[in-house]
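Throughout our pipeline, every protein is held as a single compact record rather than as scattered files. Nothing more is needed to write down the fold, since each code stands for a local backbone conformation. The record that follows is passed on verbatim for readers who wish to inspect the format.
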Amino acid sequence: MSLTSETSDTSDSRPAEEGRHTPPAGRTAWASLRPLVLRLHFYAGVFVAPFLFVAAVTGLLYAGSFQAEKLVYAHELNVPVGRSELPIAEQVDAARKAHPEGDVSAVRPSPEAGATTRVMLSGVAGVDAEHTLAVFVNPYNGEVRGALEQYGSTGALPLRTWIDELHRDLHLGQVGRLYSEFAASWMWVIAGGGLVLWFGRRRSRRSIRGATGRRRTLSLHGSVGVWAALGLFFLSATGLTWSTYAGASITDLRAALGQTTPTVSASAAPASGGEHAGHDMGGSGAPAGDGGVGLNAVLEAARAEGLSNPVEIVPPADTSSAYVVQQIQRSWPEKQDAVAVDPASGQVTDVVRFADHPVLAKLSRWGIDLHTGNLFGLGNQIALAALALAVVLLIVWGYRMWWQRGRGSAFGRPVPRGAWQQVPPYVVVPAMVVIAVLGYFVPLLGLPLAAFMLCDIVLGEIAYRRGRRTHAPVA
């Protein structure tokens, strides 16, 4: 990703001809296309870089939030290892006695020795409707270690939730999400343009050693950009998968291809009979008042199907629904199997294996977890932090090159117009089609790109006509 990747000044000293260049005979396609790529890369970098800078800085914070969370909430998350754990129903009992408010929406049994059990409560006053109140229980003695607001499938606690929302929407809600989608939509374009310009340079490249001024900045900018390009493409693609507009297009495409993520059926078996009233899991760990098998039997049934820790147990949504038990491990290898268990009989009524997910569903899951630093744990988070830092440096170097291009003026000179007139029709026409498609599927890329093209052509034509009048011969 870069703001510009060329050291030479391509300004046209003939204002009368600005916006109306005729390609020299025998000129190669790349020689004709290069000015257009350079101009698009330059302006996209100048105007999109502030959004990318915010995304990179907040992403850097998020990459470190996992480890910070473990330190800040160590008391709630960890306990001394005991001899044996209490039945999961008794742990829920302890949580409900300490926090009788709201309803139990899910339970996450202790995933490993020395870790607490989480009992999630929904409908609690003062807790965001999209969040839950997580009650932390010592699995060995039932001690309640505390309660914290929790968000998302990864169980983010207040610190990580705040940073996550800052990165995603700047705490501005749905409107704020447009900033991150805009940045993700353009990141791959800027990175790809810089990569093409870097490898398309024909003159010999000089080493950073001995280089000075703009050439040294270019060398640093280009070298880091080349190494970071693959990561930037990845962040752009995965970031768009859960964006507002492009994300909806991707979801529709996956649905049309039959590549949606399968979900376990939560319907209880018809043979179960009886009324399953209430899902508070009251004091017995089973839906209140129906004599159900209880949480302990539900968890045992899931274990019998091979669901190992960490898992999450979701109570029935209504009187005709089953418990859903799903593995929630996002680190490699991922554990995402799920089963449904009849609350009356304890029988497994449906099973969904991650191994059976469609290819695009798996790729989407892996891509999102890699993007958010979950897939490979600490190593993943370090790599994301390094990539975010690289983006910050690239932006700083890019703006510095712009300033140096103006030879010390307040603002650097822009790349000149006239690029469109140098591109052969067999390149321009397909490009128009691609832009139209992008405008439909990725509107925050396609629409600004179309506007840029239109303004560039119109301004170039105005400058050309003005120049012709200025240089018209006097009768």
Summary: The two ends are 52 Å apart (CA to CA). Confidence is low (pLDDT under 50) at residues 3-19, 270-280, 282-290. The CA atoms of residues 301 and 346 lie 7 Å apart. The chain has twelve helices and eight strands.
